[in-house]
């Protein structure tokens, strides 16, 4: 009985530790790209984490990429199969105001031209097996009719995440 309890507690300790480590990795990633050109100061972030069919877009572009090794691309693509519904919270972002889609829709009703506030959506960051690459999908909504969509690759060099390239980018 004591041995079983010890094994269960040890498993719990490692699972919490792994989750905490991953959360720290995600927070560090976003904190470092928070200084980038596409996020300035405080910003609105939609709480829901998109997990649409990004895998097909990623695999198509990553297959022709010489920067990201195939093994790392396959590992990242494997994470995209996880369709678990999740929401962002303020434990990850220091400069974001996390809001719901309902809030965005409501805020647009109070303007003369039903203009929406500017806001972002972010996918989960998908880290490579060795933790030296990361793929992020994001949308930046600018009003009701304009959006910038991007699939970005980052590389960790000297413990800092740096932007490498856009696999896909579109402004409409």
Key phrases:
alpha+beta, disordered N terminus, 172 residues, two-stranded parallel ribbon, 4 helices, globular, five-stranded antiparallel beta sheet
Describe the structure.
The protein has helices at residues 2-33, 54-63, 70-79, 101-108; strands at residues 43-46, 96-99, 119-122, 126-127, 133-142, 146-157, 160-171. Strands 3, 4, 5, 6 and 7 form a 5-stranded antiparallel sheet that branches. A two-stranded parallel ribbon has the order 1-2. It has one domain (28-171). It is 35% helix and 28% strand. It has 172 residues and is of the alpha+beta class.
Task: Tell how many strands the DSSP assignment holds.
Answer: 7
Question: What gyration radius follows from the Cα positions, in whole Å?
Answer: 18 Å
Q: Low-confidence parts, pLDDT < 50 over ≥5 residues?
A: 1-17
Shape: globular
Structurally, the number of domains stands at 1
The major pleated sheet works out as:
5 strands, antiparallel
Give, in order, the helices and strands.
Answer: HEHHEHEEEEE
- Average pLDDT metric: 78
Given helix and strand content, the structural type is alpha+beta
Summarize the amount of helix as a percent range.
Answer: 25-40%
**What is the number of helices?**
4
Measured between the Cα atoms of the first and last residue, the distance is 62 Å
Classify the beta-strand content into a percent band.
25-35%
